[in-house]
Design a protein that fits this description.
- By secondary structure, this protein is α+β, with helices and mostly antiparallel strands.
- It has one domain (about 1-340): T-fold (Roll).
- About 35% of the residues lie in helices and about 25% in strands.
- The protein has a nine-stranded mixed sheet with strand order 2-3-8-9-12-17-18-19-21, with helices on both faces.
- Helix 2 (about 50-70) runs antiparallel to helix 7 and helix 7 (about 180-195) runs antiparallel to helix 8.
- The protein is globular.
Length: about 350
């Protein structure tokens, strides 16, 4: 069987319905909304409190930037990243990077180290081996010897030495996949641009990675967290100015074989997809909240029951919701205080 990713569909539906509820009966003009399909998922941009002409203009600019990043950072289609990967496959490799890509790689390297290298964009060859560098997934188990070889090679972004815009590397097993970084980076880019244009109130959603600016109608933006096994919200929460929310789940990109689910989130220590977690949702704060919301959910997801809380602390994430393989929810006290729980049947375990 072939399985496609449907991970943006629910968030688009969910956000649309919540916005309708919040705006019902308001005297203010409705916010401007536009959708597009970028980064392999549905993108929603909502701008409140601006004339429609200005809202449309800034939204068009944001979507054009998203499209540019989609092509330049795509892991398996022609672009800056693919050209870099072609060079990295040689040993030794050296060359020149576009300034933006050089800055992205340096930032992603710092994030990787902070999360004990469990967020590891350098394992593109493993992701490719499992068939996840594709829009459709054909169920298959890769050769175990090849998995072991790539794990032993231990590729990390720190293997790419960058000085200015010049790079070099001696690890030919390294192949970069920024699928766990690009959406968050795009959120920060969009938020900074909107602020520069005087836009104070907006909600940007890239397939479930969401950043909020300001509010609308004097109320915070309200968003939903997808139930990992149902087409409904497991909880809702209010997202405040500058906050971003990110979710990693095994329901986003996966295939099933002989009754076992294999998702795209691969543990770089084993080379195998993680199977002990259904979903992790976090809230990020600060000037790079969008990027952090995308990046930090990965180590917490991969770390599983024994490591998720420690990894959250290492990445300075205080608001975490984790759903384990049995459907039980563990969440920090700070996250619990913010959630309006929708599915009362889910067992809850609140931790410090």
């Amino acid at each position: 069987m072939m399985v496609r990713s449907h991970w943006g569909r629910f968030f688009a539906m969910c956000l649309g319905s919540f916005a309708t509820v919040l705006l019902a009966g308001c005297a203010h003009p409705p916010p401007y909304k536009q959708q597009a399909y970028v980064f392999g998922t549905l993108v929603d941009i909502t701008i409140a409190g601006e004339p429609e002409a200005k809202a449309r203009q800034v939204t068009d600019h944001v979507l054009a930037e998203f499209d540019r990043l989609h092509h330049e950072l795509h892991a398996w289609e022609p672009g800056d990243l693919q050209r870099l990967n072609d060079q990295l496959a040689k040993s030794p490799a050296s060359g020149t990077l576009a300034p933006e890509l050089a800055a992205i790689l340096q930032d992603a390297t710092r994030d990787s180290a902070q999360g004990d290298w469990l967020f590891n964009p350098a394992i593109g060859n493993l992701i490719h081996l499992w068939g996840f560098q594709s829009d459709t997934f054909v169920p298959h188990l890769p050769d175990k010897n090849e998995i072991a070889r790539l794990v032993k090679a231990n590729p990390r972004l720190s293997d790419v030495r960058i000085e200015g815009t010049h790079f070099s590397s001696t690890n030919p097993a390294l192949r970069i996949d920024l699928g766990g970084y690009a959406k968050g980076y795009a959120l920060d880019l969009a938020a900074n641009y909107l602020r520069s244009q005087g836009v104070k109130n907006a909600l940007i959603n890239i397939g479930g990675n969401i950043i909020a600016l300001g509010q609308h109608d004097n109320r915070p933006w309200k968003v939903g967290i997808q139930h990992p096994r149902q087409a409904s919200a497991i909880a809702t929460l209010e997202l405040h100015d500058g906050e971003a929310i990110g979710t990693s789940g095994d329901y986003q990109r996966y295939f099933e074989l002989n009754g076992v689910r294999y998702c795209h989130l691969i543990d770089p220590r084993t080379g195998w997809p993680v199977q002990g977690t259904q979903a992790v949702t976090i809230i990020a704060h600060g000037p790079h909240a969008g990027t952090l919301s995308d990046v930090a959910s990965k180590p917490i997801f991969i770390g599983g029951a024994s490591e998720w809380r420690v990894l959250a602390d290492k990445m300075a994430i205080t608001e975490v919701l984790r759903i384990d393989a049995s459907g039980r929810a563990s969440l920090t006290r700070t996250m619990a205080a913010r959630l309006d729980w929708q599915d009362k049947s889910v067992p809850l375990n609140i931790v410090p």
